[in-house]
Amino acid sequence: MRKVLLLLLATATLASCKSSKKGKAGKPGVQGEIVATQQSQKWNNKKPYGMVPIPGGAFVLGQADMDFSGSVGKAPLTTVTVSAFYMDDTEVTNAEYREFIKYVKDSIARTRLAERADQEGEEGIGRYAFLNKKSESEQNAYQQMLEERGGREGYDESKKLDWSVPLEWRTANYPDVAYAEVMESMYYPPEERFNNERVIDPRKLIYQFTWIDQLEAVKKKGRGESFLKREEIAIYPDTTVWLRDFNYSFNEPLFEQYFWHKAYSKYPVVGVTWDQARAFCAYSTKSKNDYNQSRKKKIEKVFPYRLPSEVEWEYAARGGLENASYPWGGPYLIDDRGCYLANFKPKRGDYMEGEKGFLYTAPVKSFQKNGFGLYDMAGNVSEWTVSAFNNSSYIISSTLNPYLGNRIEDPRKVIKGGSWKDIGYMLMVSERDWEHKDSARSYIGFRRVQTIPEGSNVKFPKIKKLQ
């Protein structure tokens, strides 16, 4: 008995010594100390697919080498500092934008089917009912409260769609008449069809998203629904731009095939307005966050995808080169072998860059990337930025991440980079141009960026000097 008692006493003493080595003083709530529960460490920021990290830095903004026009919009030169961010290595392609179209089309069809199933409860269409209708007995208290209140304004969790049930788009596979009626409402009505061809009505493809006007909220020192902006954007690209942008030019094949034909999958999407580009960014954020939340081990929400500011775009286009005319340096538009370095109009009336040039847009990655690893930062298509166009923006904006604010009501937005229809001067990284935000053009596309927060554990590539 005595041996057992001594053994227990020795074990307790050992455990006490082991505990004292770790120390309890550092734990919250012990001995009154305030210690963070999370260890201080760098956050592993996973690189988004198709993007490259752009390191933060300072550069001279504006036309540092030459200024043919001498306009006030391009002066004076200013040294500014830009924070790090991710950027798409290419413009958003037709194939990528088609995924956006497909999601919106499917979600609208599923919502209509679920609402019809909720009304009629028929067996065939009933497979597409809202998830809460399929498992009412398994609803938690929060879901029951939402259903009793009829949902919330905006996103309604009680009307969550069941994406596990595949949609049937072939008429021969429609399960019942109710399903057929709902799906038929997605197509052009018979009186508007060409050769009686059933085609999805793009007017039905509306994407809804919300965002907070933070600048306005800070300005008015408020918070609430008045600063929550809800938008509904018709997202289908305007394919008629190939006919409207050019008079007396045979561009009908591009009007009919450029966006949907597989041959153009790797070409940059065009015919998108500034708002449609923003809607694509909002969908990108939602898609990634939905995936993160669906995983067994929940992942933090991503920083929102967005359009770059004018200054971010110019900084990225320079590729780490100081006072360079073009993304590859310059001042020439051809390399030492006589090959053109971008897709643009080299001569009056000549839209082909040599024997293997491109008449209109070119597939992304057809030309050399810049020092940051970005393709087509000059030529191919001009690109939307989030910035409002202002001749005095270089003067009145800050030198730290210059930005005039989210002036969404300003009708003129900055576009950068020049396009396939422009002369070489328009391809200069410092050249600025603008377009009305509700305009769609055959020579304007876009690419996304995502903020990299300070303290992220990001491996930035070594800058490749191309000069």
Automatic annotation (TrEMBL):
Matches recorded under Pfam families: FGE-sulfatase
Swiss-Prot/TrEMBL keywords: Lipoprotein
Superkingdom of the source species: Bacteria
Domain Sulfatase-modifying factor enzyme-like positions: 50-449
Gene3D superfamilies the record matches: paralog of FGE (formylglycine-generating enzyme)
Molecular functions (GO terms): formylglycine-generating oxidase activity
Name of the protein this chain belongs to: Gliding motility lipoprotein GldK
Lineage: Bacteria, Pseudomonadati, Bacteroidota, Flavobacteriia, Flavobacteriales
